[in-house]
Amino acid sequence: MRNILCFFLILCNCNVSAQPLEQRIANAYKKFANDQQLAFGSASLTVLNAETGEVVFSENGNMGLASASTLKTITSATAYHLLGKDFTWETTLGYTGSLSADGTLNGDLIIKGSGDPSLGSDRYEQSRSEVILKRWVEAVSKTGIKKIGGRIIADDRLFGTQTMPGGWTWQDMGNYYGAGPSALTWRENQFDLIFRSGAVGQPAALVRTEPNMGYLKIVNEVTTGKSGTGDNVYAYSGPYANIIYLRGTYGIDLKKAISASVPDPATDIANNLKARLNARGISVESSITGRELVAENVPIRSAEKILDTYTSPTLEKIVYWFNQKSINLYGEHLVKSIALKQGKEATTPDGVEAIKDFWNKKLGIDKDAMNIYDGSGLSPANRITTMSMAQILQSLKKEPWFGSYYESLPVYNNMRMKSGSISDVIAYAGYQTSSTGTPLVFSVMMNNYSGSSSSARQKLFSMLDVLK
């Protein structure tokens, strides 16, 4: 009897594995889409042959859905095409006016940004804030400047004053993942908040910020949450604000820093350089940003002498961290840089339009299939189809830079794919080789699911397992 049972089990397994890949995907998708967690939601899955582009499976492939951070796959691919893998940004330090015999600069010291997303970031040895500040202080000192009679001007004009893409929410923009792009981004436009929990329901004390952000007023309304409730702290502030409100709960057993966005990174970088110069004995009394001078109708002179030109890591290295760690800020920098490269203003709408134009011309993708508002996927207003995303990913296989692009994608569920999640949205897009050796590219999105995100994610992973 036992032998007969084993025989039937083996036979069933053989029948399942003998099913065509298309049928196995269809069965798995049907189970996934009919789950109670999607009773009031929407889902879409498109799977293509990665070599030929042939459709292996597609359900709701032309339905526009919120993509969350899987949109980064398209932004980074477009940046590779239009900017190039060796593209870099330059930040210059220079001055106006003349230098007196006593070492007084009768003019301004100017930091001019071109939109480097990595300036001051700890992810790259060359860009670390300590390295950059030391480099600039040395450049000023070697020139013989002992006193700056004018001001430090942080010229952040290139990216304009609209730092937040349309559709970003008030709850997001004050937090580290909602940091907006600046022509003078600094330390990825974020800082840490160190808390000390109290009794449950009582205030959680803000011990300090790292680094010191003394020029900002921080109003702490955070209370202590129960054990196991974790981080539910939100920072509320807008672009160029000088006040930040902290609200929510900090778990009593939590031991981690909370990160918030810097409202005005140009002010931050100018303050940092001013403090370092004064500590070195080079006197400077004030600093201001290009944005502030424009608002006051004060003309900004170009630097007459360049003291230092700093070149960022290459786009290839930027994209690696952009996709690996899903850094929203990098995506918004890429969008504005793409706009500039296309001869447009450095605005998010112009950059987004350039992205849509490119894929429409290259692959014939209808612009209405890419109704996007940013480069990171943070905007809940974004809508894109899984078919268009899969087609774009499939087209990259023949590009000479595909290897580095592929390596930029993280590994989840033992699959090379980019994740995406915002409120009630889970999405993945990437590459997988089937058990029979068929190379596949896929895009899957689920919107408005109910219940826990961890449960929904595991069900999605179970469906994707049939691609292996």
Characterization of the model:
- The chain has 468 residues and is of the alpha/beta class.
- The chain folds into three domains: 21-85 and 317-467, DD-peptidase/beta-lactamase superfamily (Beta-lactamase, 3-Layer(aba) Sandwich), CATH 3.40.710; 90-161 and 264-313, D-tyrosyl-trna(Tyr) Deacylase, Chain: A, CATH 3.50.80; 170-261, no CATH class.
- The protein is 32% helix and 25% strand.
- The protein is built from 13 helices and 24 strands.
- It has helices spanning 2-18, 21-33, 71-82, 129-142, 170-173, 265-279, 290-295, 315-324, 328-341, 348-363, 386-395, 402-408, 453-464, and strands at residues 42-49, 55-59, 90-95, 98-99, 104-106, 109-112, 147-148, 152-155, 190-196, 205-210, 217-220, 223-225, 231-236, 243-251, 258-261, 283-284, 287-289, 305-311, 370-371, 383-384, 411-412, 415-422, 425-433, 439-447.
- The strands form six sheets. The protein has a six-stranded antiparallel sheet with strand order 2-1-24-23-22-21, with helices on both faces. A five-stranded mixed sheet has the order 17-8-6-3-18. A four-stranded mixed sheet has the order 4-5-7-16.
- A hairpin with a 6-residue loop joins strand 13 (231-236) and strand 14.
- The longest helix has 17 residues, at 2-18.
- The protein starts with a helix and ends with a helix.
